[in-house]
């Protein structure tokens, strides 16, 4: 009798444990201190951006995945798609973004001279400066909130600049560098002057990480 009862409970326990394990996304730690990107990105922005905004996407993603798993209704699943996309994209994008950045006294702003990234940027954009101008122009032109990306297109095998709206993640390309152009990323420091934020951020772009992503993208 005990055996029957134990077996009867097993599917429920397995499902509950599996759901808890699979849907508990957590906020990744920042790889540097909140004030480490000063003066280019203020400590207050980094603190709020990481602990409030990114945490909200993590919470929203967990809630959406749990709600999805809790029902077999196709209509409910469809209803949850936008929450999954928004919060899942927010979690993916910000997790990439923190690694995209590094303090200026460390790897920030230092493109590896003669490296694969520099060579490929020159091949695909003419020069590193021309690439930065093109990326800033495209990112600054996003209406509302979104992201500017340097992505590697696995079909054309070229680096390209792409923008995504809201928290849509970059799915057509392998993300190499992403720039968050939501107001929460810059407004406390740069107010409405997006070009100043976009100019400053290159001082803290982690080109070593970008180089690694490009090497990985080409190898795959
Ligand atoms: Fe953000």
UniProtKB/TrEMBL annotation:
The keyword Acyltransferase does not apply. Mn(2+) binds at residues 49, 94, 180, 184. Residues 24-102 form the Manganese/iron superoxide dismutase N-terminal domain. Its cofactor is Mn(2+). Residues 116-213 form the Manganese/iron superoxide dismutase C-terminal domain. GO terms for cellular component: mitochondrion. Its EC number is 1.15.1.1. GO terms for molecular function: manganese ion binding; superoxide dismutase activity. Keywords: Antioxidant, Manganese, Metal-binding, Oxidoreductase. Pfam families: Sod_Fe_C (PF02777), Sod_Fe_N (PF00081). Belongs to the iron/manganese superoxide dismutase family. Destroys radicals which are normally produced within the cells and which are toxic to biological systems. This is Superoxide dismutase.
